[in-house]
């Protein structure tokens, strides 16, 4: 029969990743496909959903090249919350609109907030205020600007639920993803809130709800022929990638904070009960009875990728070495990381990136160091907003591609003054999806701490933390001091149709 294993696949912003894992958590094989989002206009961030399925098929077939393995179940996850509209047969009607980095629905956010009674009323019902992260305003934008497409829509998908549909024919969405479909979902009753959902969804039939670790369906004959997966094996419902990443490092316990180092930076604090706060997102968790305060920056790794391309550097290794040489404070530079607007905690899609203190003596290493420090300042800003809202942070676990390098995580610990646990496996969301898949097909009590034990702890260095305290005060002052100018430039960029890069 061979070694029993599970497959986990995640559709991310800049790549799709898959992992083949034994039932005791041993990674047998990984596979990756790089891609880029499309930016057809300033503030728009989209992706062709056919790419998601094509890469899933390619990744799965590559993983199945491992000999002597019998796949028992499949886990899926993906970026979100996204808006993919399809017809009744699941055929996409237009490219998917991505999560909070897509800022097209600013006017709809304001109008809908007023219609529903203000931020407090929306937060009381949905857990979060309306923002660029919310699904509802993007549906309103589509109804207003693309009425013919909207009239044809019958299904609403995210990457994880669309993979589930293609694999099984089942139309389902997990509760966590639904809780980010603000204001369609009632966080208290954990169900679609029809008085708000029906006017926004229009002709779209909303999916049935289940939990991320539930069996969403079983691999169909047609999907088996395409992917090579055995007919009839279970597919978990899955969820948004950041929450799957939190599962992958055992961070869904009260007091845990997952810090995801990726194209964007994401933070999830598990809290004892429902919490909401202006500027943050209150959601239901990945498991029944759990709740989160979440935060997300619009860029992080996207800036480092932009700098690498701008400086024509071959890879990140050289830039990291130069940034290490630059030292605390990047030679007197200070950067605002708002290169695609900013999500939490300022919720300002018109914010823009800024590098202050430039002189002719500054180097590539200084610039790269400033970018790493800027993301760390953004992390601290979000952590302070979480604790002010009632969140408690007892343990931070780092995950994602950026967590594999020592410098970036060390800078974040130095800036925040907080230690970070570095897990053995930082594969991320696909590993979390695989864990959920394994949990569905075994009677044994699978422990994520056994699957993915700690490998290291990044401790802050008090002297560097003291230096960063001074710089952080300047960081907090820089945004309000330049906000009016940044907004004017953002409006000018939109008017000129300034091309946007595809790093995110």
Descriptive report:
The chain has 504 residues and is of the alpha+beta class. The protein is 39% helix and 21% strand. The protein is built from 17 helices and 24 strands. The chain has a five-stranded mixed beta sheet, sandwiched between helices. A five-stranded mixed beta sheet has the order 18-19-17-16-22. It has a two-stranded antiparallel sheet with strand order 4-7. Helix 10 (241-248) crosses helix 15.
Question: What is the C-alpha radius of gyration, as a whole number of Å?
Answer: 22 Å
What is the residue-averaged pLDDT?
Answer: 94
Question: What order do the strands of the largest sheet run in, or round the barrel if closed?
Answer: 3-2-1-5-15
- From the spread of the alpha carbons, the general shape counts as globular
Structural class: alpha+beta
Summarize the amount of helix as a percent range. 25-40%
* Major sheet description: 5 strands, mixed
DSSP summary: helix tally:
17
Assess the beta-strand content as a share of residues.
15-25%
How many runs of DSSP E, i.e. beta strands?
24
Low-confidence stretches: none
- Termini distance? 42 Å
